[in-house]
Amino acid sequence: MSSQEISTPPAVWSSLEGIAYGGDYNPEQWPAGTRLEDLELMKEAGVTFLSVGIFSWGLLEPSEGDYDFGWLDDVLDNLAAAGIKVALATATAAPPAWLVRKHPEILPVTADGTVLGPGSRRHYTPSSAVYRRYATGITRVLAERYKDHPALALWHVDNELGCHVSEFYGDEDAAAFRRWLERRYGSIEALNAAWGTAFWSQHYASFEEVLPPAVAPSTLNPGQQLDFQRFSSWALMDYYRSLLEVLREVTPGVPATTNLMVSSATKSMDYFDWAKDLDVIANDHYLVAADPERQVELAFSADLTRGVAGGEPWILMEHSTSAVNWQPRNQPKMPGEMLRNSLSHVARGADAVMFFQWRQSFAGSEKFHSAMVPHGGRDTRIFQEVVGLGAALRKLAAVRGSRVESRVAIVFDYEAWWASELDSHPSQDVKYLDLMRAFHRSLFLRGVSTDFVHPSASLEGYDLVLVCTLYNVTDDAAENIAAAARAGATVLVSYFSGIVDEQDHIRLGGYPGAFRDLLGIRVEEFHPLLAGASAKLSDGGVGRVWSEHVHAAGAESVQTFTEYPLEGVPALTRRSAGAGSAWYLATFPDGDGIESLVDRLLAESGASAVAEADQGVELSRRRTGDGTSFIFAINHSRADASVRVAGAELLSGERFTGTVPAGGVAVIAED
Fold first, then answer.
1. Catalytic residue among 172, 245, 297, 318
2. Which of 218, 378, 575, 634 is the most buried (most CB within 10 A)?
């Protein structure tokens, strides 16, 4: 029986109250006395929700078939008595030593043939039949034992699938890849056509001849690379589904998820595709401490997480109270930054705030990673901020279940990310996220809320739609975007979009093939810019990274290149399309150019900021089904800031004065 044939269990939110609060709890690292102290500190902090048992397989089953659940029984019983709900893990994220010794064939193999050994975590391949047998086995034992436990609210399946290693090249992975290809294409002839194997004598006579795109003398077949990326994402999720099937059988009324890693750094997994098998979206997010605008990247990742969730509330499963341990220089968060980070996630749709981890480890590779209870214990700034955050979240219970309100959409597709950055493209400087992040940053700084939307999803209700570097696109998705313009939206399409179809085949007749008619332009030839070079534009600005020879074919030229060999050639065009318009951007504008273009697009589309506020204030609006509106105003500056909103401020319990203190947060229930 497949997981799709079993009815979906109730939402996890039915087991939780208010904005859930907590983190990863690893009691197996601590003696019984410390665990009792944990309960006292959890009550003080206001903890309501914990992930338990993520890396505990080696203690739960210290040798094959020999189980020890006594400590976990006690932990779950004590948490239930304290009113704390649990996301219980399947414990499968790190195989125990006895399993690796007995079955070394489960270990992952890299593209150059290196076998990755134990001693860390995630040392298995998801396509291993042996590993799946053992993983589903321990999952079944856990499910049978705890299926009726009052603390159980959610299954936490494995952990951060695809972290560290997301592509696998062993013999069993190759066989699984071939089976996947045969299901996808049906015949070897169809595969040859899709991959263009007439080039470089790459023709295959049977599926048995196909291998993963490992290390080779020169550039690899792009169709093969793209399909292997699709397969690799699928293989991880298929492994998840094998565990989910057991959980659905034993605990059909308990929802399940796995913690994603949605961010501007996680590329290998198609989370839009994964979402359909997750009962609730859960995400782990960590700041890059060296980034002076790290709050902007956080907003980008949180908005993208909400997009993966289809606008529904989601769980922030992990973030850090302060420093991490895995960056080159692990700086702590500044005073108040933990609160701002956490409420920024809530402002962007999270209805649970959790950390890695509850108590900071005294041993192991993450002992310098911050936690809710640091090495110094209760008498520390971090723990006091943890207590303060718990109090703040309790005051935001009314926000739970509301939805973020946005009138601007950015089209996002993991497959376009993969395909646009394959080998042998016109410029290695074209990165899928760069232009998208520049637009998102501009909108963030203006207080304009933005959704991320898959190209196949509905664009109804958006005033402005941004399509950045959508290199590969299906006919249906291209029509979906065109329909948004005809229905009244202002749509902007950037360079290197609509170039190929889903098989990475060029759309002939002039670029951007999928969007030529919508945009009223034709691109004859690319002129990518050299490193450090720029292209002067007719408004006095400059473009970088990219330029091209654009012919207007029904579109109005709004801005042109001014230098040889593209003097007078359009760099920005606009064409009316039904009730809306379609813009084309043929270069990557500098900072001032982005701001000027966003000014034009907002003015035309009518999309606007959540509220009027001073610079440095992050704004977001969540609205309930009955129309109640909550505005989050997060002041990232070191000076008091004005926000022009009237209403009750939830954190203080008083009337909002119109001022957010330096480094502070206000959540206003609008009048």
1. 318
2. 634
